[in-house]
Amino acid sequence: MKKLQALVVACGIGISAHAQIYGLNPATDGGFETGTDFPSNNWSVINSTTSVNKWYINNAAPAYAGAQCAVISNSASGYAYTISSSGASHFLRDIAVPPGATSINLSFYWKGQGEPGGDRLLVYTAPTSVVPTSNVPASPSTALGGATLVWTQTTTSASFVPVTLPLPATLAGTTVRLIFTWQSNASGGTSPAVAVDNIGLSYECGTPAAITGNGPLCQGGTIALGNIFAGGTWNSATPAVATITPGGLLTGAAAGTSTITYTIGSCQSTAVVTVSPLPAAITGRDTVCLGSNTALANSVIGGTWSSSYPAIASVLPTSGIVSGEAVGISHITYTMPGGCSTTDTVFVVNNPGPITGPTQLCPNTTIVVACSPAGGRWTSLNPGSASINSTSGAVTGIAADTVRLQYASPFGGCRRYTTITVNPLPAAIVARNIICALKTDTAFDATSGGIWTSLSPALLSINSSTGQFNTLAGGNAVIKYTLATSCAVTKTISVNPQPSPVVAFNAGTNTMYTDTFYVSYQWYHSVFGEVPGANTFQTAGLYTGSYYVVVTDTLGCTAASSLFAYNTSMAVGNTAHTTGYEVYPNPAKNEVIVPSKDVANITISAMDGRVLIEKQNTGKVDVSALPTGLYMITLYDSHGTRLSATRLTVE
Can you say how many angstroms the Cα of residue 546 is from the centroid of all Cα atoms in its chain? Predict the structure, then answer.
């Protein structure tokens, strides 16, 4: 900031000491040319309260110079005088006379009639404490308490007459009050009364008054300089540092000093002004949390810091560290040694409330935490263990750990912290990946103390403590192992459905059969048990009774069909005899003999119904080429009627 450092006053050297200076300029205020009434010309008026004759400003006289003058008139716009109305009226003005002034003169022009000794113009000088009153002095007296009578009208004149009155040197260094008084006695006189114009108060330079003004002055700032004596000219010795207008408005252009001179007539007053540099804008956060600190800074060093409300925000004078003392607003000011300053508004905001919500979770699960006021930003300080949605507060566990969460308030970023625990998951479940329906097995987990549950109870049931499970139906069954912390792992077990073989009968081939898409087959008689060699999709009926087949599908699952009731009479054609036909030897190695003459056709079939040997019109069949095993031998007569079917064992 810039500061008015010194006021140096000096008279000009080599300039005439007799140049007159006007404390009251007859061409402006002294000539009543700056307004249409006394106040606008910087005069006061105290008119009679009884007389119709009063002081006015107009051009009815007309004026000596310019457009207006002061007149006594019985109307505001005229110059007429009522001789029968008595009273006293005044107009007055204070003028400052500098110390050491010499050749002090009061000058004016007047004209008028009146009545010498009764209706007349009186001129006084007085201290500023003297305040004339209406109708005093009453004619013929001239006594005005405390005032000095310096001129009295003793003649009349129809035209303006100049008057110059030397005033005493004792007025130097004082402010003198000029009083112009008109008094009348209502006993006669002549109209018009009086007109006054071009009043001036001049003096020669002694010791001029000092330059006045308010500092400090900062670069880019403005202050008003002045002097009690008007009409002078202003000058700045270094306008690159400070410029000044004709009216005394001083502006700091750049940091530095300049000598300012005020010249009036032959007198000069000087002042050395210092233009101080402005500090830069304050930088740093303009919010601080209650109970916390923030650092403000300025790139221009050497200043001091202050707070408008230190009970709200205190600041260290040299460092700029602001502390939040109470919620509210304070203005922080940085002031340079020259007085120039810059200000920033700092807001002290409250801290967020406590963080609420669950404090534990598991990996791959989510909880939601909250804090007030809403609208702030969430951060996980251990993002590898738990992530958090920055706006919603949804926390997702990643790995077992203790995780610190941070909430930043939307107002100033004030922070609150909390700690949550990500509990570990149990070990992975050990169990079959694929199993058939209606099977029993046991799942295992290396982490003890958990509870087993089935998430697919229609497909699989499980013992809650042992992990033993039973498959019920085909599908993808999910089992779950849960610890006391609620952390759990799951495993999907593919339960393959049981095959559902259905047995049908082919009368033409005397075979029972099922679907061909199974991987393996085994036929059984309900009484005799496994049918040897019957391991394809079909088998021949050997004995009256119930048969079933056990199949294995492509998924490795095994199931048995329902019982199929078979009777030897179910073969195509009529059987003439069901018994009594001998086949020997049985077991046989090389040859089978059928001694009956009724037999016309002999077939030997595998157990799956495939015909391996067929002979006609013979009682002998060579079986030496057949592998060891169980076969069916069927006997037919010449009409194709089956006579007998029995098992044949080949060794």
Answer: 86
Q: Count CB atoms within 10 A of the CB of residue 191.
A: 17
Tokens of 280: 């830069």
Check pLDDT > 80 for residue 19: no
Q: Which two tokens stand for residue 206?
A: 């002694």
In terms of domains, do 168 and 70 share one?
Answer: yes
Determine the Cα–Cα distance for residues 288 and 323; give it in Å rounded to an integer. 7
Q: Report the distance separating Cα 623 and Cα 636, nearest Å.
A: 18
DSSP conformation letters of 160-182: EEEEEEE--GGGTTSEEEEEEEE
Where do the DSSP E strands lie in 450-536?
451-454, 460-462, 468-471, 475-482, 488-496, 504-506, 511-513, 520-525, 529-530
Q: Are residues 300 and 322 in the same domain?
A: yes
Same domain, 269 and 370: no
- Give yes or no: residues 48 and 162 share one domain: yes
Model confidence over 429-477: pLDDT tens digits?
A: 999 999 999 999 999 999 999 999 999 999 999 999 999 999 999 999 9
What's the order of all strands across the beta sheet hosting 249-252?
A: 212-213, 222-226, 249-252, 242-244
Helix (H, G, I), strand (E, B) or coil at 313: strand
Q: CA-based Rg of the chain, rounded to a whole angstrom?
A: 66
Residue linked to tokens 């006669």: 188
Q: DSSP secondary-structure letter at 30? A: G
Give the separation between CA 88 and CA 185, rounded to whole angstroms.
Answer: 9
Structure tokens at 405: 């969460």
Q: How far apart are CA 34 and CA 572, in angstroms?
A: 149
Note the maximum CA span of the chain.
199
Side-chain-side CA neighbours of 535 within 13 Å: the count stands at 8
| CATH number, domain containing residue 525 | 2.60.40
Range 315-342 average pLDDT: 93
| pLDDT for residue 4 is more than 50 | no
Residue 387 phi, psi dihedral angles, 5° rounding: -100, 160
Do 111 and 32 belong together in one domain? yes
Per-residue exposure over 571-607, b if at least 16 CB sit within 10 Å of its own CB, e if not: beeebeeeeebebeeeebeeebebebebbbbbbbbbb
Total number of domains constituting the chain: 7
**What is the pTM (predicted TM-score) of this model?**
0.47
Q: What's the CA gap between 554 and 476, in Å, rounded?
A: 17
60 and 144 in a single domain? The answer is yes
Q: What is the pLDDT of residues 588-611, one digit of tens each?
A: 998 998 888 888 788 888 876 788
Beta bridge partner(s), residue 546: 565
- C-alpha 369/C-alpha 420 separation (Å) is 10
The Cα 137–Cα 125 span in angstroms is: 15
439 and 548 housed in the same domain = no
